[in-house]
TrEMBL record:
EC number: 4.2.99.18
Organism per entry: Acinetobacter halotolerans
Name of the protein in its database record: Endonuclease III
Cofactor note: Binds 1 [4Fe-4S] cluster.
Positions that bind [4Fe-4S] cluster: 192, 199, 202, 208
Requisite cofactors: [4Fe-4S] cluster
């Protein structure tokens, strides 16, 4: 059965609840500047946040600017990040990116999608995280969790990541757009998980449109009025 799109009212309630649950959501990557965030996100592709934090906890006290990391060189950087998957290509990309930041952006992280996506190793997803988290822009990085939650609940149905991204940016009320990314990831990671979603303990089960939610324990009759 195809999932129905959520109504405006459902979406409003959905995010009010997620906000109530986590009033100050933050990315689980450690960072203290846009530059540190950019590098952490680049390192996090196909790796866990925990493994990235372990590496950057050692790296950033030694080098946390474009110039300092550039000075380490590819081999120097590898000694800090070799516990992270794909570290060879990541080291190359990070050093090239630092070189471009120094050459074109006075060592700073640019605030536009175009300039971010021009950096080696920075795709749309990384650019979205940086624009949203470091610069407070209403961008939406769609990862596997957000893609699943959007499609499953009827919040943002789409065949691919880009469709879901566009739909999310369109339907999420302005008041939630800056934090929505984190709320959705955390909801997908800890509650609306891939195999056995915890619909029985889900705080938004009454506004979720997933037809199978009752089989996973969602309460049947929570009366939320006027949800059409
Ligand atoms: S009710 Fe189930 S499917 Fe719907 S959002 Fe909650 S965990 Fe996900």
């Amino acid at each position: 059965m195809p999932v129905k799109n959520m109504t405006k009212k459902q979406i409003q309630t959905f995010f009010e609840r997620l906000r109530e649950q986590r009033p100050n959501p933050e990315t689980e990557l450690n960072y203290s500047s846009p530059f540190e965030l950019l590098i952490a996100v680049m390192l996090s592709a196909q790796a866990t946040d925990v493994s990235v934090n372990k590496a950057t906890d050692k790296l950033y006290p030694i080098a946390n600017t474009a110039q300092a990391i550039f000075n380490l060189g590819v081999d120097g950087l590898k000694t800090y990040i070799k516990t992270i998957g794909l570290y060879n290509s990541k080291a190359e990309n990070v050093i090239k990116t630092c070189g471009i930041l120094l050459e074109l952006h006075q060592g700073q992280v640019p605030e536009t999608r175009q300039a971010l996506e021009a950096l080696p190793g920075v795709g749309r997803k990384t650019a979205n995280v940086v624009l949203n988290t470091a610069f407070g822009q209403p961008a939406m990085a769609v990862d596997t969790h957000i893609f699943r939650v959007g499609n499953r609940t009827g919040l943002a149905v789409g065949k691919n990541v880009l469709e879901v991204e566009h739909r999310l940016v369109k339907v999420i009320p302005k008041e939630f757009i800056l934090d929505a990314h984190h709320w959705l990831i955390l909801h997908g990671r800890y509650c609306c998980i891939a195999r056995k979603p915890k619909c029985n303990e889900c705080i938004v089960s009454d506004v979720c449109n997933w037809p199978e939610r009752f089989e996973f324990g969602a309460a049947k009759a929570i009366p939320i009025k006027n949800l059409t």
